[in-house]
Fold these 2 entries.
Entry 1:
Amino acid sequence: MDWGSVNNEVRQLLLVEHTGGSEAKARYYVRGHGGWRLRGRCDAYIGKNGVGKAREGDAKTPLGELRPMRAFGILPDPGCALQYLLVVPGTFACDEEGQYYNRIVKTDPDAPVCGGERMWELSPEYDYGLETDYNAAGEWPLGSAIFIHCKGAKAWTGGCVALDKPLMKKILRTADDGLRIIILSGSYPR
């Protein structure tokens, strides 16, 4: 793979191509001395309503470039270069308007500081995942909790990208802050 236009700070690429509905193709590339090498691929799931995220609850995946914020998971750290947040009871992905909107917080599970996903209850989806910088400013209601995570029983997500667990684990073991996640509608260079 030769993408001369990708700048030198980018060391890994996760390319997600929306193919229709909630279906996508994902390819993971790592830059080495000889250029870009494909390290993994899988069929992926995206938002139930496709792509083009505009607001909270639209069940769409955003298009464009995302960066990783940190890794997370219900399972122990698989050896991440990125900061790893262990998901335990009380770990919420806040999705309601307020000071914690679009943040992962650890709080009392019986008296949480926000409403949202009870992340510790979402296995296998959150066995491993990446928090992205989508709506990093936390502006209501632009959307929250856009993660890259493992597939579950459903053939769609609420707006995240869901990958096969072996590929998700490989990404966590090899990605650093040089990872870029590119979500496209249509084909990309092979």
Entry 2:
Amino acid sequence: MKGSNQVLRIIYAAALQQVMEKCLEHFYKQNSDLKFELKGAGSREGAKRLLSGEKYDIIALADQALFAELLVPDLVENYFVFASDQLVIGYNRSSKGSKEITQENWIDILLKPQVSFARSDHHSVPRGYRTLMVWQLAEKFYNKPGLCSTLEAACIPYATYPQSLDLSSALFRGKIDYAFLYSSEAKQLGLPYIALPSKINLSNPAYAKFYDQASVIVESKIPGKNVIIHGNPIEFAIGLSKDSQYPELAQSFVDLLTGPEGSSILEEYGFIPC
């Protein structure tokens, strides 16, 4: 059922922008008369757009747990985990302390008075609440009571760079010294970064129980209500809207992303295919 009036609508986590664009290049070769509408957004924001009535055929989010919390079963029937990642500390060539920072001393460097660091909004972007979880886990891992609160107090207010792209762009331009990013984002931007121990960077399923000790309160799908999110390994997932106008085409795109072709694209942009 091809035709020039067909428009496949996709909303995706901003961290997936280059992956989605590259996948669409490949998909377009087999569907050259198909039109596309792409929308990048924070994952919680993206899910809430569907809840508010916006129409999309495909939803790709930076946290698979958002599907169960917000979208299944009313708006999405099935979803598929397709990639994993880790949280890292990105910096730039002019960052203060960049010649000294290591996996062992990153806390001391970030807390120096002259150093600036930032995170994303935990209410709209998984990377935001995952950063808070990393800080909570670091407090336990390094046995530093009060560390999370100390980092929160020293951090640039999250409203300054609320979305993923705001934050990574500010770091790339040298507006801040350090930022908590996905390793894939740092690689795509060509930014150096410090890898954190796997017990706190949310990358290793073997530490899922340890990650679960971290929790963050965020706004729920019910206005004025909150929900507690617990730490878990970072997993990106994609699903099809139940009211998609073109379910077969949407499924074909998901098959591309989750198949060998998509795996190569994911690896090219620094993700770990699942």
